[in-house]
Specification:
The chain is α/β, with parallel strands linked by helices. It has 2 domains: 152 residues, no CATH class; 156 residues, Glycogen Phosphorylase B (Rossmann fold, 3-Layer(aba) Sandwich). The strands form 2 sheets. A 6-stranded parallel β-sheet has the order 7-6-5-8-9-10, sandwiched between helices. A 4-stranded parallel β-sheet has the order 1-2-3-4, sandwiched between helices. Helix 6 links the parallel strand 5 and strand 6. The protein starts with a helix and ends with a helix.
């Protein structure tokens, strides 16, 4: 199942189609999937800077959903930049991708074109740092049509493993999460499944080499999964764990609610926005231990699935954006 921005794009397209709009989506060609990441990044930049602005001439609106925009494309009054987070905007990051993000966002902002934030947490950051001061800003949250379609008709019994939703980015702090697991959960021999690594065991194997006391059979890195398989691992989980230092939204918490699962998540703004009776937050080892005790002490099987509110908000705000342009 696609994660991150690709799945955001799928649901954004679905919301636009619900409103009766014809949508043309540019995707990475199949022949490029096996190329090195650096080569893919360069091809993406070339397509975004030159192909997108040419195609946008023939359409009333153009959406740039990857935190970046086309310099020429931003001349189009119907151009919309989607901002997921401000992680690449840190000036200490001198990498090519981070520089590209900052440069294209600066041009888009200078022209005063529309900007969409994927969550209220990201929107608040934009307001706080006065980003895109000339632009009209709105919130276009993650949609869940594709995930709910995958859930339809499925039911699996609760299992014993904890599902850790993670990734390879530094903000995911996978080693920090594994350290918490070692200090609190491994002694109970509770199995842990890692979702979001697409089968990449590098970080986990390096961590296990530093922790020979941990039974490696307790930790399993899940491969790239189909939509149905992702739903299954959610439903079969003991509870869901979302650990991160910084996020734009935190889709896994909402997905857990759709699958009637309790969640333990780090105490960061986008996760706090999703806090309810099903979500426990933590900021250190002690609060994590309390959160674990809270979930382990209740009947987790009695929880009912929740309908995400984001779908209605996404459609509502798309209507608002389409009524006017910058």
């Amino acid at each position: 199942m696609d994660r991150g921005i690709p799945i955001y794009c799928k649901n954004l397209r679905r919301a636009l189609e619900i409103e009766g709009h014809h949508v043309v989506e540019l995707c990475c060609p199949a022949w490029a999937h096996g190329l090195p990441k650096s080569v893919q990044n360069v091809l993406f930049m070339l397509c975004e800077q030159f192909l997108m602005p040419v195609l946008s001439i023939f359409y009333s609106r153009s959406v740039y959903p990857y935190n970046t925009a086309s310099v020429l494309g931003s001349l189009h009054t119907g151009a919309l930049l989607v901002v997921h987070d401000f992680i690449p905007n840190r000036k200490s990051d001198k990498g090519l991708v981070a520089r590209y993000v900052r440069m294209t966002q600066w041009v888009h902002a200078a022209l005063g074109r529309d900007v969409a934030c994927v969550s209220y947490a990201t929107y608040r950051v934009a307001q706080k740092v006065n980003a895109f001061a000339k632009s009209r800003k709105l919130v276009l949250p993650n949609g869940f049509w594709t995930f709910r379609a995958a859930i339809n008709g499925l039911s699996f019994p609760q299992g014993e493993q904890i599902l850790l939703c993670t990734g390879v980015g530094k903000n995911k702090d996978l080693k920090g999460a594994l350290d918490l697991y070692a200090s609190i959960l491994s002694e109970r021999r509770i199995p842990l499944a890692l979702l979001g690594l697409a089968g990449d065991t590098g970080i986990m194997q390096g961590w296990l080499a530093e922790h020979p006391e941990i039974n490696p059979t307790l930790i399993r890195v899940l491969p790239r999964l189909t939509d149905r398989e992702v739903v299954e691992v959610y439903m079969r989980s003991r509870w869901v764990w979302v650990h991160s230092r910084s996020e734009g939204y935190g889709r896994s918490i909402a997905e857990a609610k759709c699958c009637a699962k309790y969640t333990i998540a780090t105490n960061i703004p986008p996760f706090r926005d999703q806090k309810d009776q099903t979500v426990q937050l933590y900021g250190d080892r002690q609060s994590f231990e309390r959160a674990v005790a809270a979930l382990e002490g209740i009947d987790r099987s009695a929880l009912r699935p929740q309908e995400p509110t984001e779908d209605k908000l996404l459609v509502k705000n798309i209507r608002l954006w389409l009524r006017t342009s910058s």
